[in-house]
Amino acid sequence: MDEIKLTEKDAEELSDSSQSKVTVKHAVVGSRKKYLTVLSVVACLSVLCLHINSGFWNYGNNLIWYFSNLVECLFYFAAPVFFMITGATLIDYNKRYSMRQYAKKRLTRVGIPFLFWSFFGLFFRLIVGDIRWESLTLRSVINSLVNTRYMTIYWFFISLFVLYLAIPLFANVADEKKQTVFGYLIAVGFSLNAFLPLLFRLLNLEYNQNLMFGVCSEPILYALLGYYIDRYEIPKKWRTVIYAAGIAGLLIHLFGTALLSHSAGQVITTFKGYGNVPCILYATAIFTLFKYTDKTRVMAFLEKPVKPLSDCTFGIYLTHMFALETVIKLSDRFGFGLSLRILLEAVTLVLVIVLVKLLTKIPYVRRIVG
Fold first, then answer.
1. Contact present, 224 and 83 (Cβ < 8 Å)
2. CA-to-CA distance for 260 and 202, rounded, in angstroms?
3. Which residue, 28, 33, 133, 211, is most buried by CB atoms nearer than 10 A?
């Protein structure tokens, strides 16, 4: 998630590196930074909305659950968009620095914070009583770190690390072949890993997992989509198709989940999943929309309030669940109602944002929060 912070120097280097035989939209210093920065902050705030909305997973045939379903579906694009931003900003890393520097940057900017906050999560679980000291062994600690059991939302980092390992392969595809190769991978990955599995599920057929296109896992698919949309000009008629498909994806996710869950009396996940068709269509439309509103008044309007948060989105993601879980545990203990609990969660998240912003100003400390 650190890739969301492009500097002007990065933008200049990106602009210089975009000159190839392929038709690539010229990078203008600041323009790419603007839409990617705004989108990263929007995605970060969307993550917060999703986590406040945890009541979605407790189905109830009432207005509260249906509203929770709406919130869940509206902000579901958040994690995929972060993968897309990673692809847009990192796949051409070899035009800015060596593979050794690339590895070092990934380790210091993401690997070390992940380990620090994972161990912080271990101590947090001990303090709140989720884990007992006597149950700790080296084996259990390693197992929990690798499987992100101390803080489950850190699943994102495991996927991100695998993506980091794959990016050098895509970075070394010749510029004149990137558009064709990436377009092929996106088309085949979407067809075999998303469309056909959903179709088979709807037809009540078993999908042969050997048909899954391993080269294009969820994070890789989104990274390639982000790079493709960011680098290549999309004709207006195809953008219209993308937006229509995105709206369709959102509606299928929203109403499909509501109808199936209502019939079953529990949350049904047929249309859920970051690698599922509705989410891919919706996230692609969101990313495309932000790219093509980059120079509009809307983007200029959005940039002013979100820019101060652009350097602390990583830290907010790392820390916010500790605060939310504390509020939830206190609410359960003292019997707070749903409305009060949501209010306390919202206030707590504002305080987390302010705290992380302050921590990013402190040397050395800022290395573990962004």
1. no
2. 12
3. 33
